[in-house]
User: What shape does this take?
Amino acid sequence: MNNVTVLSVGGSIISPEGVDTAFIGQFRQAIMGYLEENQEARLILVTGGGYPARLYQNGYKAVCTDVSDYELDMIGIAATRLNGALMKAVFADVCCDEVVTDPSADIAFSGRILVAAGWKPGFSSDTDAVYLAKRFGAKRVINLSNIKKVYTADPAVDPEATALDTISWDDFRSIVGDTWTPGKNLPFDPIASREAQEGGLSVICADGRNLENTLNILNSNEFIGTLIS
Assistant: This one.
């Protein structure tokens, strides 16, 4: 299925402080237009957790002093599945199959869009996106979030941090590390990064709120973002 593209759609743009209905409506319009113009194209949308994940993880932290990473991940996974159910409903006319919650299971892909969400503790839905890319023969993952580019460091902490157009996997992984921490805000999950590098995949990180830019990426035109390869 080399006509498949995987989009890791961050919860930060689906539900930044509640469901962003304006963005989701515009996203649907843009994606449906892309599918109309590219009749062979099929998309896998993998949803992140966003605001619901943070809200309920913080609730757990407020109640319990002995906090478990496993439980934090399970809460985050539930949030990704909530966002996945929303996106499946939004694209119901072209998404005929159930939300994928286990990328290693038998998966039906009978429509133009397949929606997937979190699987199990130990990594984010970015890793699920990489697993699905490998499974369906996609060569890249488009990682859509609320950041325009990857920086050399966290710009909120380091005023000397600079934006990057391209970066190698080795250099990117030296920035994000090799350890997954539930709820940690990184451009791309460290576990997903390792799996993508080992699988020979490239990842494009871009601001998913810029729908014209997203369409440029899908259509292999010039775009604003960071290519990791």
Observations:
- The longest helix spans residues 69-90.
- The chain has one domain: 4-228.
- The mean pLDDT is 94.
- DSSP finds eight helices and nine strands in the chain.
